[in-house]
Amino acid sequence: MASVLGRSPGRSPARRLDETDEAQLERLYKPVFVMKPSSYKCSEGQTARFDLKVVGRPMPETYWFHNGQQIVSDHTHKIVVKEDGTQSLIIVPALPQDSGEWTVVAQNRAGRTSISVTLAVDEVEPLHLRYGQEQWEEG
């Protein structure tokens, strides 16, 4: 028995998907840290490293900040990102001025999230060698 509208029961008429429909079909997921970095303490000259993994759809972009200032990869700050979302910020050599709050922001079209950790770099006192500390008396 055919339906009143002349089509099979349970079926809706076919129509073409346009770009808006396709965008609505794409599921978006805001960024989530599935592996969070931890605060870190080291001595001056050592390597400091923050590891994390962030997921989302589309894959989130990440941005690092030190005490509110954005950081990019340079000769002492290396940002390594793998395809699976795992990434590391490697600071070598760590210096006392690297101490403070480090924040990573993950962002995509679905949203934004961030996490902050602390780095404490202990200053190493220079080693002073004292040679010939004899005192001469004029006589």
UniProtKB/TrEMBL annotation:
It comes from Oreochromis aureus. SUPFAM superfamilies: Immunoglobulin. Pfam families: I-set. The lineage of its organism: Eukaryota, Metazoa, Chordata, Craniata, Vertebrata. This is Ig-like domain-containing protein. Coiled coil: none annotated. Residues 31-120 form the Ig-like domain.
